[in-house]
Amino acid sequence: MRSGVVAQKLGMTRVFTEAGEHVPVTVLRLAQCQVVAHRTKDKNGYVALQLGSGSRRANNMSKADRGYFAKANIEPKRKMAEFRVSEDALIPVGAEITADHFIAGQFVDVCGISIGKGFAGGMKRWNFRGLRATHGVSVSHRSIGGTGGRQDPGKTFKNKKMPGHLGVDRVTTLNLKVVQTDVERGLILVEGAVPGSKSGWVTVRDAVKKALPKEAPKPGKFRVAEEAKAETKSETKSEVKPAEAKKEEAKPSAEAAPQAEQAAAAAQQAAQAAEQAAKAADQAAKAANKAADKAAAAKEKKPAAPKKKEGE
């Protein structure tokens, strides 16, 4: 017995066959449906897989729930469900089930929560016939009529079909045919209607009342987390290589940058020292010029020596 999947209902559309006939289908999306945990016979008394689908913000969860997903090394999931499986159909924890888990042409059972319709009368809720349109019936054409007997039993039995809340029930639709699958986008196209509203969560499993085709993969079609990581790495390697080459080219320039900075600093210091020396030389030259000017001025101020008379 294989595992099912947790999917999200996107809506309905139609698919044309080769003969030109259109088939109404419901589109179901696998939002990273992963195996979260195992239920074993020794620990839990039964064998099952716990699956999770959809993403959820970690800050909106309790600490216990965050720890539960962290233990499995899986991102928090929006919707959880368990599927009973045989012991030989266990899938490793962390594996992501892909859309080709189901093959075109096989039958599946889809279970979901029906759309709520509020408070409904007996004719809509239980398909009652109602009362006559004429001949003595006034203002109670859609009533359900009597609900109990006479003095015996003297009461209305429990679970009597009466007006009440309609919808929001767990409904399973059996024997829906898989028209086609899209692995890249994670879509499963199922013929016919599926219970629930758009963007609602449903569970899809192999049909109970139909034989499983021999071509169906066992224990299932899935992608292990390590393989997915390897694929993403191989895809990103081609993008990273040019950047790595640029980095390697930039390494020598990055290593030479400190040396160039040191040389520039030394040249700047030498230029400053030369400027200081030039300033000192200018000052010394100015001082020498001043001294020469003073000496010349002093010579001019001295009185001329008196001439000696003849005969003295």
CATH classification class of the largest domain:
Mainly Beta
Domain count: the total is 2
- Global geometry: elongated
The helix tally amounts to 4
What is the distance, rounded to the nearest whole angstrom, between the alpha carbons of the first and last residues?
156 Å
| Biggest pleated-sheet summary | 6 strands, antiparallel, barrel
The Rg value, from CA coordinates, equals: 46 Å
What portion of residues belong to β-strands?
Answer: 25-35%
CATH fold group of the largest domain: Elongation Factor Tu (Ef-tu), domain 3
For the record, the CATH architecture of the largest domain stands as Beta Barrel
What is the H-and-E element order? EEEHEHEEEEHEEEEEH
Give the neighbour order of strands across the main sheet. 1-2-11-10-7-12
The proportion of residues forming helix, as a percent range, comes to 25-40%
The count of DSSP E runs of length 2 or more, i.e. the number of strands, is 13
Helix/strand/pairing category: alpha+beta
Mean pLDDT: 86
CATH superfamily heading of the largest domain: Translation factors
Tell me about this structure.
It contains four helices and 13 strands. Helices cover 30% and strands 27% of the residues. The mean pLDDT is 86. With 312 residues, it is of the alpha+beta class. The N and C termini lie far apart (156 Å). The longest helix has 77 residues, at 225-301. It has helices at residues 41-44, 63-71, 122-126, 225-301; strands spanning 5-16, 22-29, 34-39, 48-55, 77-84, 96-97, 107-113, 118-120, 164-166, 170-182, 187-191, 201-206, 222-223. The protein has two domains: 5-115 and 161-223, Elongation Factor Tu (Ef-tu), domain 3, CATH 2.40.30.10; 238-293. It is elongated and about 155 Å long. A hairpin with a 5-residue loop joins strand 1 (5-16) and strand 2 (22-29). The strands form four sheets. Strands 1-2-11-10-7-12 form a six-stranded antiparallel β-barrel. A three-stranded antiparallel sheet has the order 3-4-5.
